[in-house]
Each structure stands twice: as C-alpha cells, then as structure tokens.
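Standup notes
- HV: blocked on the assembly model, inputs below
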Amino acid sequence: MSVMWWGVIGTSVIAFALKFTGHSIPARWLSHPKVQAINLQIPIALLSALVAVQTFTSKSKLELDHRALGLGVAIVALLFRAPFPVVVISAAVTSAAVVHFL
Amino acid sequence: MSAIAPATWRDSFSVSLTVGAYGIAFGAAGVAAGFSVFQSCLLSLLTFSGASQFAIVGVIGAGGSALSGITTASLLGIRNGLYGLRMAPLLHVKGLRRVVAAQITIDESTGVALSQEERGEAAMRQGFWLTGFGVYIFWNIFTLVGALGAQAMGDPAAWGLDAAVPAAFLGLVWPRLKKNSDRILAASAALLSLALTPILPAGIPIISTAILAVIFGLRQR
C-alpha cells in the first residue's frame, strides 16, 4: 500500500476516533484549564511550522524562491482582512507570475 | 423540534458556504501533493477536518513518512475531541446519531452553536446540525472541483502556483493569533521547524513544534 493510502486511512480513522471520544467521555476528564490552554496553542504552533516549511524549504534544504513572495502577498491580503479564497489565490498568482516573468 | 430562527439559518448558511469554498484549495493541494482525486475526496469525506487534511497532504507531499503525516494531522485533530466534549451535553444523542454528530464536530459547527447561546439551547443545537451538514456538503463538493481542476492543470508546482498551500495554512492560523504570546509562539514554531529541517526527516520538524505549544500552554494563566 502506498504512503498516500496509509495517510488517508490513518488520518481518517484517528480523526474520527478523536471526535467520537470527545462525545463519549465525561466532560470533567479533560476540563482542566491547562489541557484547554495547551489545546489552543497546538494549532498555532503546527500551522505556523507548516507555513514556514512549505514556503522556505524543499527536500530538507532551506530555499528562498517565488513562494516567499507569494506568502508576502498573502500576509498583505490578510492585513487588509481579505477573505480566505482571496488570500490563497493572490499568493498563487504572485508566485506563478514570479516563475514566469522574472 | 422548534422552528429555526432566520438568524440561525443565516449564520449557518453563510459559514457553510464560505468555509466549504476552502475545499477548492484543499482538493488542489491534495492533487498537487501527489494524492489522486479519489484519495483527496476520501480525505474530505472521512477525515473532514480542514487543518488535518492540509497537514497530511502537506507533510507527505514534502516527502515525509505516512507516520509523521498522520501524527501531525492527529495533533491538529485533538481540538475536535474537545469540541465534542462541549457539544455532547447539549446534543445528548446516542447510537448512529452520535456517530453522525461526532463526524460533523469541527471548528465551524461548534463555533456557530456557541454563537447562538443568546437564542437558547434549541437554537444552539440547530446551529450545530445546520452548520455541520452545510459545511460537510459544500466542503466535499468543492474538494472534488479543486481536485479535478488541479488534475486538469497538471503539476501546480510547475506553474509556480505552489505558494497556495503555505498561504492556505497562513489563512488558517491568522485568526488564531489574537495575543502577543500567540504571535511569539507562531514565530518560534516557524523558526524551530526551519532550523530542524536540514537535520531531521521531513515531517518531524513540524511535529516537534508541539513541544512549544505545551510550553506556551503551561505558562498561560
């Protein structure tokens, strides 16, 4: 079985198990404020790491290329409170323009 | 079931449509990362949690192992479990209904449910179900559209469109950066993952930043 299939099945099974567990265990088990606090920080850390790795690396090497400019435009779009699809498309169009015209 | 307030309909529908539209970005990202159209659609049908889905295709697409991809995706999915904890006493459902409720327990269904608090518990339940089903339907339709679009284009990286994926992650994390400490955590996680990239296998540098989340979480009052 390919890496992709393991990824699809593994992620889906665990994602559902996590959701279902939440609906099935007594609330007091995880209501500790520290657990809640850590849970709020996890997406911030992992998503920020994903932004960095997907923008500035390629195959275990650090790289500065068209993606960085695309990300810069995405930041500007977010500063102007642009909706999500506008953010993604403006980044994609910018990086494509750099690849084709520079 | 009592009548559904127009405001609850409006909140649920607008969230469902806008969030569902992100599905285009996910479908395209899945195919760009080397997943088939079918596999990308399965992720939306079965995993049904945006950040986790982007993570698994992002990590594997960058050459990471299935295990590191699944771990990253699952760490991002923990919060759905905590949402379930909050929603269960409100919904009190059993059997198949609980299975369905669990599957549609995500940021948006929980968020709309909580935002209906002033309108009473019935409105909260309606907000949960309407938004959960609404996002599910639109997210899956748009995933298919995005995946087919990317497949028709060939390799998005060759077109130079690959900044779309980090921009999508940025769009997901941006609304969470409310306090100064959130921004410091985001910057630290970005730097740590970059520093570790040359020395650790793909995917591990991303998972490693969960340690920062624990440290920052424990320091909060």
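- HV (later): unblocked. Chain A touches chain B through 76 residues (CB under 8 Å). Residues 1-29 of chain A form one domain.
- Next: hand off to the docking folks.
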